[in-house]
Amino acid sequence: MMVEQATIGDLPVIVAMRQEASDWLAKKGINQWAVAWPNPEAQAERILSSIRAGETWMIRTDDGDTAATVALDSFSDPQLWTESEQAEPALYLHRLIVRRKFAGLGDDIVEWACRRAGQLGNHWVRIDVWTDNVGLHRYYEQRGFKHVRTLELDYPSGALFQRAATDWREQADADKLAEQPQNLPTSSPN
Ligand SMILES: CC(C)(COP(=O)(O)OP(=O)(O)OC[C@H]1O[C@@H](n2cnc3c(N)ncnc32)[C@H](O)[C@@H]1OP(=O)(O)O)[C@@H](O)C(=O)NCCC(=O)NCCS
After folding, report:
1. Would you say residue 159 has pLDDT above 60?
2. For ligand 1, is residue 29 a contact (CB within 6 Å)?
3. Which of the pair, 177 or 185, is modelled with greater confidence?
4. Residue 182: inside a domain, yes or no?
5. What is the pLDDT of residue 188?
6. CA 107–ligand 1 middle distance (angstroms)
7. Which residues form the N-acetyltransferase domain (predicted)?
8. Whose CA is nearest to atom 40 of ligand 1?
9. How many angstroms separate the alpha carbon of residue 41 from the centre of ligand 1?
10. Residue 59 sits in a domain of what CATH number?
């Protein structure tokens, strides 16, 4: 598996993956992502601007098949995170989606994100999770994330979690996900 930065051509792929994920969740009776937030245009624009900023990643097989996607950025939303939290160097994980035929890959992506955050000098990987989706809260807790707090806002993902970024001194070189050489920032964007 390779991790590479998404390009603009990946936008429809990501939108389709999100749809596939929400259809799968709906069959399980979970309403997360049932409606684009706040609307489909704004959602596509958010994904596009993340791609343009080099903050969306695609995980592909050696054959070029897309297995998963994730976004990682350093924007600390003041609606969600306190001033002192915003002052801490952190990467924020968004839109983690693993296509169903690659289920199980999420562990490696979470580890990759924590290593990347550490390499870039961050202390935390943070995520805002669908407020009432306790199954998903459990998913992140089982992967080392700690619940920070749950906010009741006009925003569907008010359950905040964080995990310490992997200390660069402890980083094993046995990365399962190889990163393709590219123009990556070499220092913390924070
Ligand atoms: C969350 C996700 C990335 C995890 O991928 P993964 O680590 O490869 O693992 P799986 O897809 O096998 O999911 C692991 C477990 O979490 C559950 N799960 C996954 N997404 C879930 C969700 N959104 N809500 C509730 N449970 C969820 C799965 O049903 C599975 O449960 P099981 O072990 O009882 O079968 C992937 O399931 C996915 O793309 N989910 C839909 C999109 C999503 O919710 N992304 C997270 C946004 S914060």
Report:
1. yes
2. no
3. 177
4. no
5. 36
6. 10
7. 1-173
8. 97
9. 25
10. 3.40.630.30
